[in-house]
Amino acid sequence: MNAVDDYLDQLPDERRAALAHIRDLVHQGYPDAVEKISYNMPTFVVEGHAIGGFLSHQKFMSWYPHSGSTLATLSSEISGRQQTKSALHFTVAEPLPDDLVRLLLETRRREWSPSGQTD
To answer: What residues does the YdhG-like domain cover (predicted)?
Structure first.
């Protein structure tokens, strides 16, 4: 087990499943992503760059792209969703769609790698 497993194990079943699904999507797109705890949250690192992380809050969960521009770049795609400048919020009842998670990851990747491709 690692620190991300420990984090997920502390959550209620529905939240654990929702965040584990996002974790799976990250690893599908970036099989070499390294997991760690950064800023007290599970974070995924690709080629030395944090590509995103998630947190479970009392009333919702959040995806943090670890970038000041990813959410702004995707403003039309995430319009109508609860968010702050640095996080996109969601719930078990209204999860982030798989395609949106993939788009968030791809957009973040393009911020430091114009091709957006893994090696």
So the answer is: 15-106
* Secondary structure string (H, E, C) spanning 19-54: HHHHHHHHHHHCCCCEEEEECCEEEEEECCEEEEEE
Give the model confidence (pLDDT) of 41-64 as tens digits.
Answer: 999 999 999 999 999 999 999 999
Quote helix, strand, coil % in the chain, to nearest 5.
40, 25, 40
**13-29 helix and 98-110 helix, angle to the nearest 10 degrees:** 50
d(CA 113, CA 26): 17
